[in-house]
Amino acid sequence: MATAIPSPKVNHIGLPILEYRGNKSTLCAGCGHQSISERLTEAMFEMGVEPERVIKISGIGCSSKSPAYFLNRSHAFNGVHGRMPAAATGAAVANKNLTVLGLSGDGDSISIGTGQFVHTMRRNLPMIYIIEDNGVYGLTKGQFSATADLGAKLKSGAVNDLPPIDPCALAIQLGASFVGRSFSGDKKQLLAILEAAIAHKGTVLLDVISPCVTFNDHEGSTKSYKFMQANDDPLNDISFVPSFDEISVDYDAGQVCDVKMHDGSSLRLRKLHPDYDPTNKIEAVRTLMESQAKQEVLTGVFYVNPAQPTFIDLLNMVDEPLATLPQSVTRPSKSAFDALMANLK
Amino acid sequence: MAIGDPALDQKQGSLDTHTRVANDFSINVATVNGSGSQSANSVLLKSIFEMGVPVSGKNLFPSNISGQPTWFLIRASKDGYVARKRNSEILIALNPASSQADVAALNAGSVAIYEENLKLDQTRNDLIFYPVPFDKITASVCPDVKKRKLVKNMVYVGVAAQLLSIDIDKVEKALRWQFAKKQKVFDLNFEAVKAGFAYAQEHLTKHDPFVIEPMNENAGKIIIDGNEACAMGAVFAGVTVVAWYPITPSTSTIETTTDLLKQLRLTPEGKATFAVVQAEDELAAIGIVLGAGWAGARSMTATSGPGMSLMAEFCGLGYYAEVPGVIINVQRVGPSTGLPTRTQQADLLSAAFLSHGDTKHPILLPTTMKECFELTQQAFDLAERLQTPVFVLTDTDIGMNDWSSDSFDYPAKPLDRGKVLTAEDLERQGGFARYRDVDGDGIGWRTLPGTLHPKASYFTRGSGHNDVARYSETPEDYESNMDRLARKFETARTLVPAPVIVKNGASKIGFIAYGSTDCALRESLDQIKERYGKDVDYLRIRAYPFSSEIHDFVASHERIYVAEQNRDGQMASLLKLDLAADQVGKLRSILHYGGLPVDAESITELFAAKEGF
Description:
The structure holds two protein chains of two kinds. By secondary structure, chain A is α/β, with parallel strands linked by helices.
């Protein structure tokens, strides 16, 4: 007797979630990065993004290996240490119709790659830039990175005595148009922010605290699961309503900040901190600095400006990707050539 | 005296002041940099060009914005020699700081045109002096005190034109060329030229032998510098993504490219078919180039030595992950910051092997302006055909000096975009293996991101990978991949431009040179023939890896002199790595590396000494 196999759930472009998965992970069991890969898989599936229109660019480190573990149907570019932003910029400019997903870590972005991080934020390049932030160098077995908190302890007992760099405060100041922080263990929040990130057209900088179970999950670490569970202070309760879904209101309007994304979707932020305005840069940076002083880890969407022109807008390019423009468009005519020659005589 | 002062490089001799010397001398214009003399130098050069006489210019300038001595050498040569001439016969001394030394360096019988109040005629009695009150003449035509410093330069153009019998209407034409759309600027400058001309006519009695006589050698020719010619090459190769970081002496390559793109590559709606990104550093510039090349764009950067050093890691990724991109390196003098505005050919080895591991890169080596244009185009085709970074190496001399050139030809061949699979191809063949050598030439087929087919994607990585682009650390996969890359480099050997060979009979001696050494070497070959009665053969290398003709040339000669502008004989070293063991001993180096463009005398003397003439 044949049993009917239930057909798998498909998204609004008709693909099952299987088509968004990647290879089997070689990261440590329990690694926060793996949860991020899973949320990215779900977010791309839920949003109905064609995987072939996504590119995954990464640098070097545990975080930068993760693009192999999701979205196998997307092209990937695993480049050199700290230089993900440059490769992403080149690819984004070459084909402006792609969704650019940049995967980086705290070492990759905030130490060796600080220069590129800074300038990419400044350009507001259309991309989702994720820092999988565990405060340590995993592949070289657990040295502090520049996001390690003051006083954090390594397994060996070594104490970090330099202040951390906060990628979020930096990104807001530099010009990124969507800045947030999440925790790999907070499935709901991370998924909602990622869905909104996909709908956003400028730079999304998302710092995701992602505990390193092998080198930084012990007592005294400020990037451990335990520390995050105790100190995570969500700024807002986030939900995302894609443009293809109907909006159903179930919030107290006074407590809700609705951000209209450029594709018609909306990012709904229910305020957990009274009077927080995610469109005010100065307030965002002040709030981040205050929370850091209190040793709390503020998460949520800190700043968003869907209308800010992107680097691609500034380049004023033709609609068709530069990568596929035919010779008839890219090689000037014989008459243009002759005119140039005449000017040189 | 600063290093690079041409005065240091001169030897005393005596000129015959009675025989008329037409179209065969060099003028050294000594000024202060930042004084605006560049336009005047250019106008004088173009005036001689307009007289139909072969002419070349060498700007020997300091790494400084203003206030330091600078020299501009203009060589008129009826025989068409365009290398720097070691001795200038005519000095135009406008810089009080360097004038004493500049005059001291002249050969007896040479000419010095100088600012009257410098009283240079009191320093020597074996020169021909023409004192000129430049400041007074300038004041008479330019009431605006602020503009006098600039206008003064044009006065010397008028004086020189009159003394050298250059037609004033040719100067006018050159001036129009220089200030194409600026009528007021033209008017003011032409007044200055005429005032200088008139002064010379009325107050100076010609008693030197140097004159410009009309010839007809420049019909159909253009004047251009190498950076501009490379920029044109890029634009006509259909470059779409340009990323860069400013660095002397390459900067004008990208500035010109940008200008040309804005001029030629906007749609009627004003939309750009290109993107130019000024990056935060060269690390980012090459990263953007390779990111764009990976995504399918024709991408390029231009840089110089220090910038190329910063690009090393990414270039290794480009080689190993097989990503196209074009890197123009306008070489300056190293090591380190070196002499930023001077010329050298000393980045050859570092370009060939840029990055760690068994990395190597194809290099194109243009000499002429036409080659700058054509080889830059070819670099894009090769980068995409070979799926690898391709270097174009020029230098300060080629890149920043004005050269007279044959007109370029509109590209006849279509762009070669290399092996790219479309969604239809993938559907037909059921997928692909990114790094599999299906054609036996070492080059796999690639897909571009955004290709709408479920089997289009692959994982590009700088870590070990197998032929289906999966991570692998097995010795078998690693070696098989590296061996294929070596095979691809053998394919490159057959695709790069062949050398140019000049056979002079059955000589046992051959010369090898490349790039900007060529112009001095060709003159040197004539000197060797004239002085020692020796015919020698000459091969000019135009690319690395070396094609078979280069091996054949070495094999068919007893001794090979490799002339180049660096201390260590880098091309000779590169050749030695490639030649059969029994051929290596044939190579001898002739080296010139002080930072000034090589001159023929230097090559001839070193050759004669080594040959025992």
